[in-house]
Amino acid sequence: MLPKRRLIIAGATVGGLFVLYAASSYWAGVKAEDTLQEQHRMLASLPLFKVKSHSYERGWFSSTETTELVFNRHLSGPYENMLPDNMKSLLNATIKFTNHIQHGPLPGLSGFSFRPGRALVKTEFAMSDATRKTLKTFFGDKDPITIVNHIGFGGGGLLDVNIPSFDYEEALSGVKMKWKGFDLQVDYAHGYREYKTEALSPGFLLEAASKGNVSFEGVRYVSDMRPGNTDIKLGTSELTIGNIQLSSRESVPYSIKLNELIYLMTRVRVGEFVNPSGEFKPSSVVLKNFSYQIVTSEQDDFVNTRGKVNFAELSFNENRYGPMRLDVSANHLHGPTLVKLDRAISQIPFEGVDPAVLRKQYVDTIKKNAIPLLENNPKLLINEFYLKMPSGEATLQGSLGINGFTPADLGDITLLAKRIEAEAKLSLPRQTLEGLVLTQARNLFTVDHTAEDQPNMQEVDDLAKSLLDSQLAQWKSEDYIVEDNGQISTELNYNAKGLTIHKEKVALPWEESEEPAPAGASAPLAAPAAKPAAKK
Q1: Half-sphere exposure of residue 536: CA atoms within 13 angstroms, side-chain side
Q2: Predicted pLDDT of residue 277
Q3: Given this model, what pLDDT does residue 480 score?
Q4: With contact defined as beta carbons under 8 Å apart, do 495 and 486 qualify?
Q5: Nearest to residue 107, comparing CAs of 35, 166, 45?
Q6: Quick one: pLDDT at residue 451?
Q7: Which DSSP helix (H) or strand (E) runs through 413?
Q8: What is residue 260's predicted lDDT score, i.e. its pLDDT?
Q9: What is the Cα–Cα distance from 184 to 123, expressed in whole angstroms?
């Protein structure tokens, strides 16, 4: 009887464990669905896509989630004529993927993985036979992309994305491609409110025998973000690139509409720019050791952020620039106002809205919601800018702040101007300034580079140089700038007491000059309508 009793006890134990495992798996499936639905809501909120269909079929031990996305043609429509013909058809494509979800408490048990958690999610992309054939050319029998999401018991998890490396070569055309792979890992908390990201792409090389080549090495991105007390995302993000090279053997025409580009990226309408056009000549560009870092912190209700951008060398044909260092800060920004302003702007409908109406909506929204930012004395700082150039060195330090602002100041431009405090120290090579002026002058006079009647660029250059020489000579005689060995430098200070340039007082339009300016004298660039005050 004893062996039989043991069998009964063992059977009951196994049955109890199975019931317990089944119940916990069902609970894990319910909780995993909550996490994945939150993930889907984040995806659906992206303006680039629209959700064509979405379904979730939850089972006892496993579930299936299927999503179909299409590109938002209302967003891309105005710019589709800028795309190559063979890419326009892709905008009509449907992106379909299926998440195969195994529930916990040991969701990977069928694959002999004993890692506990709510669920193990593997993503499969639906592809046409033609697409699979094309990808097989590059990746062979390897999956072109692998996405695995381990969801923990607390609702957070670890998302891994991998694109394998490949070598590709066409003997007849001389095209070579070497892709060294891509890895992304996102360690996220419940609700995706906190997350750590690390992405690595060791390198890429594309060689086209007749056109040129492009390559990059050592791309790495890391971030550690969390919400602050005001819901502003705090933390650090960093990007480093070891080397980028671009070589072109052919001329490439270009016509850049800067205002349309800004609208495409930000959906914010701005005024018209002088839009450059022309062509890139055969050239070689090399960028070495590029990096940026952004750190955002919080003190009480105020947010401080600091960004740094650096590179060791930028070479363009025979010209070498670098090192370059840029260090900027934005301090004492009112956190609750930033959150409110961001939410208000994101709720403005922009699809199919007349640009003039949209611009007014943005302006009205900022006026309505941004006043507390100005009331709390924000300050922008250029801690350092340094760039070594073939013609010399450019440096800049400065700050811009608002102190003592009240809403009533918006009704009086003079009062508003007196709340502003600014200072700057600038130094740059005269040759660089001349190059900027010549470039701007050419853009002003070049309407269409394909037109038959083109202006005489030499005459445009001579006129611009003459005007610049005359203006610099006047500024030097009035002690607004100093020139030493081809290096121009000056200082600017502005506050409620007025404006000084290189310690010389400059009368502003609402100020009375201590004595009339000399006949024929023109004002400095910083205050074009002003007359210089008498020297002390």
Answers
A1: 5
A2: 57
A3: 92
A4: no
A5: 35
A6: 58
A7: helix 413-419
A8: 58
A9: 15
Q: Are 115 and 106 in contact (CB under 8 A)?
A: yes
Place of tokens 């003079």: 414
Residue among 471, 496, 472, 494 at smallest CA distance from 405:
496
Contact 139, 163 (CB under 8 A): no
HEC profile for 61-117? CEEEEEEEEEECHHHHHHHHHHCCHHHHHHHHCEEEEEEEEEECCCCCHHHCCCCCC
Q: Measured between alpha carbons, how far is 304 from 380 in angstroms, rounded to an integer? A: 10
Please give the pLDDT value at position 202: 96
Closest alpha carbon to 116 in 126, 127, 105? 105
What letter represents residue 398's amino acid?
G
Helix (H) or strand (E) holding 10: helix 2-44
∠520-524-527 over CA atoms, to 5°?
A: 110
What pTM value is reported for the model?
A: 0.80
Q: Are 495 and 421 in contact (CB under 8 A)?
A: yes
Q: How far is CA 495 from the centre of its chain?
A: 33
d(CA 142, CA 182): 14
- Token pair 């070049």 in the structure block, residue: 446
Q: Is residue 161 a contact partner of residue 146, using CB atoms and an 8 Å limit?
A: yes
pLDDT > 90 in the chain, percent: 39
Tell the burial category of 488 from Cβ atoms under 10 Å away from its Cβ (0-12, 13-18, 19+). Answer: buried
DSSP state of 92: G
CA distance 447 to 42: 44
Match 């996220």 to its residue by tokens. Answer: 188
Tokens 């250029």, residue located: 382
Q: Which tokens hold the place of 263?
A: 């609208």
> With contact defined as beta carbons under 8 Å apart, do 230 and 339 qualify?
yes
Task: Please answer whether residues 17 and 9 qualify as being in contact, where contact means their C-beta atoms are separated by less than 8 angstroms.
Answer: no
Q: Which residues, other chains included, contact 400 with Cβ-Cβ below 8 Å and sequence gap of 6+? A: 379, 380, 420, 421, 422
* Measured CA angle at 500 (ends 497, 501), to 5 deg: 165
Tokens at 526, concatenated: 């910083």
- Expressed in angstroms, the distance from the first to the final Cα of the chain is 116
Q: Say how far apart CA 418 and CA 329 lie, in whole Å.
A: 23
The single-letter code of the amino acid at 470 is S
The DSSP result for 116-140, as a single string, is -SSEEEEEEE---HHHHHHHHHHHT
- State the pLDDT at residue 534: 40
- Below-70 pLDDT ranges, the chain: 1-2, 4-12, 14, 74-90, 252-282, 350-352, 355, 446-454, 512-536
Under 8 Å between Cβ of 100 and 119: no
Vertex 48 angle, CA 255 and 43, to 5°? 155
Q: What six digits make up the tokens of 265? A: 């990226």
Count of beta carbons in the 10 Å neighbourhood of residue 146: 14
Give the three-state DSSP class for 90. Answer: helix
